[in-house]
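[worker-b] picked up task from shared queue
[worker-b] task type: protein-ligand structure
[worker-b] ligand name resolved to magnesium ion; SMILES cross-checked against name lookup, match
[worker-b] sequence length check passed
[worker-b] input payload:
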Amino acid sequence: MTIDLHAEPSSVRFTNITKRYKTGRGSVTAVEGFNLSIEPGELVSFLGPSGCGKTTTLRMVAGFEEITDGELTIAGRRVNDIEPHRRPISMVFQSYALFPHLNVRENVAFGLKLRHEPKDKIQELVDSAMESMNISQYAKRAPHELSGGQQQRVALARAIVTEPRVLLFDEPLSNLDAKLRVRMRTEIRRIQSELGITSIFVTHDQEEAMSISDRIVVMRDGRIEQVGNPQEIYQEPANAFVADFIGSSNLLEVDASAVELGAGDNEVLVPVLGTRMPIRTTGRPWDPSHSWKVLIRPESVRVRHEDEASAGAHDVEARVRGYQYFGDHVRVECEVDGLVLESRMYGHGHHFDAGDACRVSIVAEDSRLIRD
Amino acid sequence: MKNFITRSSWHVWALTAAVVLALYFIVLFPTLRLLGQAFSSRGLEGFTTSLQGGQGDQNVLLNTVILGVLVGLLGMIGGFVLAMARTRLNFRGKRLFHWIAMLPLISPPFAIATATVTLFGKRGIITDKLLGLEVDVYGLPGLVIVLALSFTPVSYMNFCGMIRNLDPTLEEAAQSLGASHIKTLTKVILPMLLPGFATAFLLLFVEAAADLANPLALGGDFHVLASEIYFAVAGNGDVAYAAGVALALLIPSVSVFFIQRYWVGKKSVVSVSGKPAGEPRPLSSPWIKAPIAVLAGAWMTLIVLMYVTIAVGGFASILGVDNTLSLEHYRFIFRLGSDAITTTVSMTLVAAPIAVIIGSLTAWLVVRRLKKSAGILDLIGVLGLAVPGTILGLGYAIAYSSPTWLFGHQLLPAIAAGGSVLGGAVGIIMVYVARGVPASQQSSIAALRQVSVSLEEAAASLGAGPMAVLRKVTAPLIAQSMLTGFTYTVTRSMTVITAIIFIVTPETKVMAGQILDEVDAGRFGNAFAYCTVLIGLVLAILIATELLNRLVSRRSHTSKETV
Ligand SMILES: Nc1ncnc2c1ncn2[C@@H]1O[C@H](COP(=O)(O)OP(=O)(O)OP(=O)(O)O)[C@@H](O)[C@H]1O
Ligand SMILES: [Mg+2]
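[worker-b] inference finished, payload out:
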């Protein structure tokens, strides 16, 4: 990689950003009270269900949507009223948006030519960008003569060659097949960290977000639910929505009157499976006036045959309802006290049949008490 | 591999034969007969004379080319500006804008010419009365303006479709790479519309170069190939010579038409990228908006002015000279022209369904049935539009004004021009059909390409024979495009004069012919009244068709839900 960055990576700061669309009847609030500070060189993903405002927020950064309220700064400079083409950003689109009347090379050179850079400099920058994206051999082809993955590489080369301070991605991989998606996201991450460009990556694929992000912003209905690194988002979800959206989870109702304060920090004793388990709360301290749930990730649920030796943990009688085999892991659904618990166990040697009697135990340290 | 679609029953063969025969008689035969005359010695004389510029002291060939180029350029720009205004500017009344922009398409050829003379002529209301200018609209400048106004709807529609298909994310991509609004326009939008500009120019070039009506009404001393043809026939009765001149016009027209259709058309780069992303967004740069708004506004004003003149002109004694209210013109046309009105409407209503049936069957054969020969059939079908109206009409006069013989047997009596059966109505209807088939065929081909073959295969697997599939599955699926063909044929037929000028007869009066007579005689008031009635009739038929369509599609929609 020989592109050297003249432009410093920049911070992006959202302060109370709100977006309302005017429609035929009144207005729709797409984003409300959005506060976020993105550090220079960071890759932040916006993650959330369809219609939660990810694209809208991203397009406000690009300048394609007007900001109704709040302040947006890039590198400390307010950009609310700056036109898109004057912002130091580049965007990679879901549809690739390659110019059909230009060939691959001309597409990549587009932004540089607009700046009237000297010819040999353009040549050099374009060459190295195409090389780093492995598309040099397609230089003379028209966009429609490339596969989806190749097109997206061209789009990425075109976006980085102008040395933007911020790189924006709107679901760039969703038109690719599963295998290619995994490869491309690795590549995006590689380029991004090599160049150290501040990036915002919109996706609704949680695995994608987890695998490439420094931090993830989980959104719902135009609001931020949680901001954190992938580990925090998965292990310490702020609430039941985040827990449910990221990965799979068992969420158990909690009878607030039966909860007691525990010994450790933020630890409470919660009745689960007929015993009082010490479980930590996430985010906020225990407060009986709110509604809470116990989050138990499936990999924290162990299931064993009745006749197998106990590992010593507290376990209870259960019955197998369903069993699925995935190769590297199995998924077992058990019924305990009228509850259904999902378990995921890695490795071989786990085999159950529906209807089997079994015993279930839970790894309490990995479970959390979270706000509903 | 032979699937059921290409496996044929005798029905299909019979149908194919019928379509081919129909196309043969409505376009191919007259064209071939015309070529036959053109290659006679007198014909070749006409041809070579035309190539050298014609008999008179002006170069008719050059005149034709100049007229075509100027109209092509002006109409191309006009259509682009109007389409940009409609699709990319924010304003109220877009439907009205659209209707006004399309108005020239549904009015007879002399409407604008006559209004132009009244407004901008030597004693024109604007040029003389208002501004006191000394201008003469007769000749090239007037022709260019009138023809550009008349044919701009063609390029306008073309651009509307193309601009709608531009992927708005491409513009955003350009902007995010640092392109200003102007640069986005010049580096992305315009280059992607390039095939559209070529198409618009070529189509308008052909229309203008081959137009006869306006050069007759407004040409003055400015002669073009089409008027040469007319004068050769009408003046000297020298049909063979006319056919030779026609050949000089036919070669460039047909070449340009097919260049446009098979080369430029295929070059279209619009919408190759992934998935189309939403509505075109309004322009935001005042530097682009202002010129478009001003130009479109001016164009619209001109059109409105023309049609107000037409509407008012029918009720004034002599508009611009004696402006007193008078119903004399309407009395005149309803007394002497009611025949023409009913004849025109009935012939149109006979021709349109026939054109739709032939056109959509041709489309079906081209897309679904034929393989190697599909291209040939497609070509024969669109020939009715590729051959300029004047020439097709001349071909009819040559081919059908005497009985048609085949191997010593009389196949057909004389069906066109004076002294033929039904007063020549059959010939006129056939011309209407010939001009209508291509539109119907093209829209049905487009629709059929969208319909998955698997739907037809599903029907077949449920036990439907090829004919049942055609009637029960295919036809309903392309109903909308058949309707397009219908409305197109109606507007074309009601307003056409060029293509039938050689075969109209005293017994079968058509409105457009009547208007020509009135214009020729300088009775503009009558012409205005005729034009108004004609436009009103076309609008009435279009609106009735649209209402019927809504009624039917609503019914079929509800029935779909209950299934
Ligand atoms: N132009 C518009 N006019 C009105 N409402 C809009 C417009 N664009 C988006 N919205 C609304 O704003 C909300 C957020 O839309 P947005 O496109 O940002 O969602 P998203 O998170 O990107 O969803 P997806 O995952 O489906 O792309 C949605 O409720 C949507 O209906
Ligand atoms: Mg989105």
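[worker-b] attaching auto-annotations
[worker-b] Confidence is low (pLDDT under 50) at residues 1-5, 270-276, 558-563 of chain B.
[worker-b] releasing lock
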